[in-house]
């Protein structure tokens, strides 16, 4: 009798453990939310100006990566890199003018991998970059089970929709509007949120897991947003960037002359000299006000989507990932927009809500994502308990999302992977969900890059066509340093000439978090000869890691002396 009871208890225990293991690897739905041009100007990232209660609430139930970086600070290349888990040198997309499946390799995308694994995959808004870069179809039917949805009102974003002081309509940068006066009485991100909610409702009675990607257009310019969001940021309470001047030792090739901002009607009226002429301070304040207002407007759309997920009973079975394609300069270093290798352009928000892992399931604690109205509840405070400070990259998303959703993560790519359809050039970050981060990882680094047509700022410096690229800026970001090399580049062969060094940047982040003091020229550059003598098969990333070790070792010995 006693042995029988013991056996029953043992079998029950084994059954319970088996269910626990299955639960941790169950196939979860995925809601992948992507913002456009969003730097970590969010309350949950410590920005005291930002009013973003819905994303902050998501962060409070998520694991938040505080130092995540894009692989190129412009929409098309970054999104293609993120969704294929391949770096720009592998996708061979540095502008908007090629489709990776034709131009580089037939790489499997993140949604395509889920689709091939039995998921119903859907796309709303800006996920892939539209146009040539995604074959004019957002990579349908490879990546999606149904044709992607784009809001009809987006066609007005490039038209003259902004009422000026003269009462006429202009194509302005600053474009706060009365929504009721807009065509259809709606804006693109509102349409996208509504369509995403409709798609969620359509999946509530299905046994087939879903992958829904929702790309919001804001805070991308123009800042065509509901005018009421400006009231959250009174202009007399806005401040300039803490480092608004072009650094004296910044190589000219590194400077982003923000041409897309200059082309807007209201900015052209300012008659700003090219390339360094500063924007008048009062207009700088208004740009910053409108950017933050656009972020709060986008936050409200995220809130509508998350509250619908909750109300439909899907929050307990759906992983939510929130990210951006890259950042955006708000006057730092005298720059605006993206198009550079600085942190303000490459650093992005990244968070994962995994039910039962990063937060208790809703049935244990009530509502998971109640909508927060920023105009009524802006003082709510949310706490982030699960944060990762070590450096990660957007190429890490594909393997991490796959694994945390219950699929196998793709295997690491070989050194040359143009013929390999499914692999990852990123890291599976699943281990960070199991173990609390205890120390900084000096080996963790991110790599970004940016092309230039010349050594000095040109009208096409921000977005040169492939055939015009002459210089490629490769940038390594570690916990302690940002190290950038500007090297000669051949666009016909896609080869970088490691012996053709045009300029360099090195910033010590402990003393210089704003990356204002370039100390690259303080060092003996014989290290370059060491780099040149390395075998050609050594990757650019490994070369730069070895260089940085060499440089910083000398820095440490110099400090000791």
Could you name the key traits of this structure?
single chain; 561 residues; alpha/beta; eight-stranded mixed beta sheet; four-stranded antiparallel beta sheet; 16 helices; 17% strand; disordered C terminus
Account of the protein in words:
It is globular, with a radius of gyration of 24 Å. It has helices at 2-24, 53-60, 75-84, 88-91, 100-103, 110-116, 188-202, 259-262, 265-268, 281-311, 343-346, 362-365, 397-405, 431-434, 527-532, 540-560; strands at residues 29-35, 63-69, 120-125, 162-163, 169-170, 174-177, 210-215, 223-226, 318-324, 329-330, 336-337, 347-353, 387-388, 392-393, 446-452, 471-477, 481-490, 495-508. The strands form five sheets. Strands 1, 2, 3, 7, 9, 12, 13 and 14 form an eight-stranded mixed sheet that branches. A four-stranded antiparallel sheet has the order 15-16-17-18. Strands 4-5 form a two-stranded antiparallel ribbon. Helices cover 28% and strands 17% of the residues. Mean pLDDT is 92; it is low at 1-24 and 557-561. The protein is an alpha/beta fold and 561 residues long.
Strands, helices and their partners?
Blueprint: H1 2-24, E1 29-35, H2 53-60, E2 63-69, H3 75-84, H4 88-91, H5 100-103, H6 110-116, E3 120-125, E4 162-163, E5 169-170, E6 174-177, H7 188-202, E7 210-215, E8 223-226, H8 259-262, H9 265-268, H10 281-311, E9 318-324, E10 329-330, E11 336-337, H11 343-346, E12 347-353, H12 362-365, E13 387-388, E14 392-393, H13 397-405, H14 431-434, E15 446-452, E16 471-477, E17 481-490, E18 495-508, H15 527-532, H16 540-560
Parallel strand pairs: 1-7, 1-9, 2-13, 2-14, 3-7, 6-8
Antiparallel strand pairs: 2-12, 4-5, 9-12, 10-11, 15-16, 16-17, 17-18
Helix pairs in contact: 2-10, 7-10
């Amino acid at each position: 009798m006693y042995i029988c009871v013991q056996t029953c208890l043992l079998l029950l225990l084994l059954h319970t453990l088996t269910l626990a293991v299955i639960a941790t690897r169950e196939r979860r739905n995925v809601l992948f939310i992507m913002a456009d041009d969003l730097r970590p100007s969010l309350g949950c990232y410590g920005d005291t100006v930002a009013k973003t209660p819905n994303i902050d609430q998501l962060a409070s139930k998520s694991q938040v990566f505080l130092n995540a970086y894009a692989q190129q600070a412009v929409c098309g290349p970054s999104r293609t890199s993120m969704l294929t888990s391949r770096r720009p040198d592998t996708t061979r997309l540095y502008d908007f003018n090629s489709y990776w499946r034709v131009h580089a390799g037939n790489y499997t995308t993140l949604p395509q991998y889920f689709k091939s694994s039995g998921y119903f995959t859907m796309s709303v808004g800006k996920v892939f970059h539209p146009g040539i870069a995604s074959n004019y179809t957002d990579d349908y039917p490879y990546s999606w089970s149904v044709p992607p949805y784009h809001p009809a009102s987006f066609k007005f974003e490039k038209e003259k929709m902004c009422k000026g002081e003269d009462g006429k309509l202009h194509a302005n940068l600053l474009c706060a509007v009365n929504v009721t006066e807009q065509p259809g009485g709606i804006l693109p991100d509102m349409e996208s949120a509504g369509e995403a909610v409709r798609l969620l409702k359509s999946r509530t009675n299905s046994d087939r897991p879903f992958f829904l990607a929702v790309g919001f257009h804001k805070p991308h310019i123009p800042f065509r947003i509901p005018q009421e969001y400006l009231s959250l940021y009174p202009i007399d309470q806005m401040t300039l960037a803490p480092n608004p001047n072009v650094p004296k030792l910044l190589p000219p090739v590194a400077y982003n002359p923000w041409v897309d901002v200059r082309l807007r009607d209201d900015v052209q009226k300012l008659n700003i000299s090219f390339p360094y002429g500063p924007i008048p301070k009062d207009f700088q304040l208004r740009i910053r006000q409108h950017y933050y207002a656009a972020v709060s407007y986008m936050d409200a759309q995220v809130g509508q989507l998350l509250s619908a997920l909750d109300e439909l009973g899907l929050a307990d079975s759906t992983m939510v990932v929130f990210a951006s394609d890259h950042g955006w300069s708000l006057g730092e270093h005298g720059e605006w927009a993206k198009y550079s290798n600085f942190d303000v352009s490459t650093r992005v928000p990244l968070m994962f809500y995994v039910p039962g892992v990063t937060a208790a399931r809703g049935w244990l604690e009530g509502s998971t994502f109640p909508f927060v109205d920023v105009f009524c509840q802006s003082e709510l405070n949310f706490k982030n308990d699960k944060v990762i400070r070590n450096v990660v990259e957007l190429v890490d998303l594909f393997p991490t999302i796959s694994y945390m959703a219950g699929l196998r993560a793709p295997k690491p790519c070989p050194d040359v992977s143009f013929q390999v359809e499914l692999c990852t050039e990123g890291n599976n970050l699943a281990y960070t969900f199991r173990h609390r981060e205890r120390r900084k990882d000096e080996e963790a680094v991110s790599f970004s890059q940016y092309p230039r047509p010349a050594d000095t700022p040109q009208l096409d410096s921000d977005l040169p066509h492939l055939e015009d690229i002459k210089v490629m800026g490769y940038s390594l970001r570690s916990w302690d340093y940002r190290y950038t090399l500007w090297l000669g580049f051949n666009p016909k062969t896609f080869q970088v000439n490691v012996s053709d060094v045009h300029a360099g940047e090195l910033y010590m982040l402990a003393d210089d978090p704003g990356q204002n003091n370039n100390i690259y020229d303080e060092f003996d550059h014989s290290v370059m000869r060491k780099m040149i003598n390395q075998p050609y098969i050594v990757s650019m990333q490994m070369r730069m890691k070895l260089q940085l070790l060499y440089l910083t070792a000398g820095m440490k010995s110099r400090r000791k002396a």
